[in-house]
Amino acid sequence: MNAKNTLRSCSTGLLEILLFISSVSAQRLEHIQVSADGNHFVTADTKQRFTVWGVNYDHDSSGRLLDEYWIEDWKTVVEDFHEIKALGANCVRIHLQLGKFMQAPDKVASESIAQLKRLVALAEETRLYLDVTGLACYHKSNIPDWYDQLDEQERWNAQARFWKAVATACAESPAIFCYDLMNEPILPGKQPTTEWLGGELGGKFFVQRLALDLNGRSREEVAEKWVNRMVDAIRETDDRHMITVGVIPWVFAFGGGNPLFYSPTVGERLDFVSVHFYPEKGEVDKTIKALQAYEVGKPLVIEEMFPLKCSAEELTEFIDRSATHTDGWISFYWGKTAEQLRSKEKPSIGDAVTAAWLEKYQSMGARMTTRK
Description:
Elements: H1 2-27, E1 32-34, E2 41-43, E3 49-50, E4 52-56, H2 66-69, H3 74-86, E5 91-97, H4 98-101, E6 102-104, E7 107-108, H5 110-126, E8 129-136, H6 145-148, H7 152-170, E9 176-183, E10 185-186, E11 208-209, H8 219-235, E12 242-247, H9 250-254, E13 273-276, H10 284-292, E14 300-304, H11 312-322, E15 328-332, H12 338-342, H13 349-369
Helix pairs in contact: 5-7, 7-8, 10-11
């Protein structure tokens, strides 16, 4: 009798352990990868289709960039991630400034790497994947003097060291969706230039040049060598997570042409296409046509979108109509919920637009991420 009771007790205990393991397994994040046919994203183990529905979390409502406040104001970051999760998002695009991560061309800032690891742990806890965008020079005040004094190859070397350090910190986490090598890189024209950064927008410089002078090279040749240099740096320490480059859709801006970074040579080692679209009022048809130019046989993500130049209804139409071409969409979240924006004593027009869009975005999430 005692033996039977003991056996029954052991069996019950074993069942509880198995149920616990099953529960943990069901809750854990799976790595995301490109499907075997190369057309969309899937979870690595269960092979379930994964559609990106995310937000850019680049700055807060006051304009501070994430890595300017994520140490002393960590509580806010935690709250924001939970708010993003409540919106129905499954991905957060973060933007890391080179000047916050590199103390010298060959010296990484250990404090920033430690905080990045903390953020990755938060992403795992909240079950949010990270689109890690790097090499940002958005605030000139954070660009080290030494950085712009480097020549092209030295600058690329510093950028490669940044990526190796970031990839080393992130390599083991299933919460990393991808590494975006640089936000909207551009190339010089026929004439050399002296400025690494493009134009200013709202006090920030989102566009950055890869070179100041083509020196007899084609734009494609420069872009290909730069992409390969950054990919090599990441692959030294992380051979699993996907790599992309978020680009301006020049095909849309100029009404034709071929994508530079997603040409067969330049984009060969990029796992999927990331492109930024802000449809103009009354031009949804034109935007959809331009989007089709980025169908190159790889998954396609709209990495930035917002009703900046069109209505929320037109952006919703763009999302719905792009669904046959697209494997994900990433909008914006700046640290204020729709309720918080509406409850301001004197909400601005921008507050009203953002609040209305956040509500629309939240209502669409389940439908967009469960499509076949």
